Recover the amino acids of this structure.
């Protein structure tokens, strides 16, 4: 097992909590929920939200704020797990994509936006 895989495994549980906590907090915002359900935004493999369609200024501001807060959480938790921010964010991205609901958008490893259906999402082979 590579050292990267060990780090991914070591941070997976913490990443789920970080990602789930951040996502849950923002899902209370009706604008965030509407943007996800409409397919305007989606989860990316790097642990951040991305724009599926050109955003309005308000949507851009909301997503930028969410991504800034995610990075702060990743930075804090990465040091606690002896991983890099990028590794921690990646692991969280794996988990957030796995938790997308039917109809929501996510980015596959090849950079293509996909719509979640009943089958498991297409994720990076390093995702556990």
């Amino acid at each position: 097992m590579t050292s990267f895989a060990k780090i991914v495994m070591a941070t997976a549980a913490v990443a789920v909590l970080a990602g789930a906590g951040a996502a849950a907090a923002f899902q209370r915002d009706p604008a965030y929920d509407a943007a996800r359900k409409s397919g305007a935004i989606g989860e990316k493999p790097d642990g951040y939200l991305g724009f599926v369609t050109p955003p309005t200024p308000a949507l851009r501001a909301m997503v930028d704020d969410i991504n800034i807060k995610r990075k702060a959480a990743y930075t804090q938790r990465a040091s606690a797990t002896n991983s890099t921010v990028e590794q921690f964010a990646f692991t969280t991205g794996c988990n957030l994509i796995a938790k997308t609901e039917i109809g929501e958008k996510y980015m596959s490893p090849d950079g293509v936006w996909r719509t979640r259906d009943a089958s498991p999402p297409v994720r990076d082979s390093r995702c556990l």
Summary: Confidence is low (pLDDT under 50) at residues 3-20. The two ends are 13 Å apart (CA to CA). Strands lie at 41-43, 49-51, 105-107, 113-115.
